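Shipment paperwork, digital attachment
Item: protein structure file
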Amino acid sequence: MTGLERLWAPWRSGYLLHRGRRRCIFCLARRSTADRQHHVIRRSRHVFALLNRYPYTNGHLMIAPYRHIGRLTSLNSREWHGMLQLAQQMTQRLRGFLHPHGFNIGLNVGRVAGAGFPGHLHLHLVPRWHGDTNFMPVLAETRIIAQSLEELYDHLTR
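Attachment content:
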């Protein structure tokens, strides 16, 4: 019998320790000028993109309006178009760097739909590769991310 393998993911401890008392990460990032600290990789007039600190795959990012709104119907046309335009730009940037075979793009509107921050609408952009699903998320509730957020941040902000 072999020994138990350990996959260290110390960056997850922040999520586990602060789940019940989290402030809105999007509003914190919006107000801050420390883009690297908040992993903000692109800002436009009405929306901004930031890396997800708890990604499903490498390159998983989120695009949010600056306004703290939680309903799709509350977006004005400039914000909606800004989110879609930034999604196009970031898709192209991720495709050129990470070479994914596809993308999942979506919104989780409301807590029951899986929104971690239901009060601040955001779009998820998740790169996908052939065969990127394996037994780890199903059996071990673990995802393996092969690149640090800092390395990805440095490349996407060049």
